[in-house]
Amino acid sequence: MAQELSEKDLLKMNVEQLKKEVKNTRVPISKTGKEIKDFVEAEAGNDPLLKGVPEDKNPFKEKGGCVIS
């Protein structure tokens, strides 16, 4: 699609995107970083990637093995 647009059209799209982005409120990383860290630490107990999934609730556990007779 980008190849079909002229350079002028691409520049207009860039300007429109920048106009949208300039309206976003900015928050210092020193504040948001602390908030993210606090959230992650608070939710760590509920994270299955950290705790693991109980064997009886694991939907991907193999149901049975292959039997060769």
Automatic annotation (TrEMBL):
Compositionally skewed regions (Basic and acidic residues) per UniProt: 53-69
Domain G protein gamma span(s) in chain numbering: 1-69
Matches recorded under CDD domains: GGL (cd00068)
A GO cellular component entry from the record: heterotrimeric G-protein complex
Annotated GO biological process: G protein-coupled receptor signaling pathway
InterPro entries xref list: G-protein_gamma (IPR001770), G-protein_gamma-like_dom (IPR015898), GGL_sf (IPR036284)
Gene3D superfamilies named in the record: Transducin (heterotrimeric G protein), gamma chain
Coiled-coil residues: none
Compartment(s) where it occurs, according to its Swiss-Prot or TrEMBL record: Cell membrane
Keywords noted in UniProt: Cell membrane, Lipoprotein, Membrane, Methylation, Prenylation, Transducer
Keyword Transmembrane part of the UniProt annotation: no
Recorded GO MF terms: G-protein beta-subunit binding; GTPase activity
Chain residue ranges for the region called Disordered: 47-69
Membrane association type: Lipid-anchor
Family: Belongs to the G protein gamma family.
Subunit structure: G proteins are composed of 3 units, alpha, beta and gamma.
Role played: Guanine nucleotide-binding proteins (G proteins) are involved as a modulator or transducer in various transmembrane signaling systems. The beta and gamma chains are required for the GTPase activity, for replacement of GDP by GTP, and for G protein-effector interaction.
Protein name: Guanine nucleotide-binding protein subunit gamma
Species name: Panthera leo
Gene from which the chain derives: GNGT2
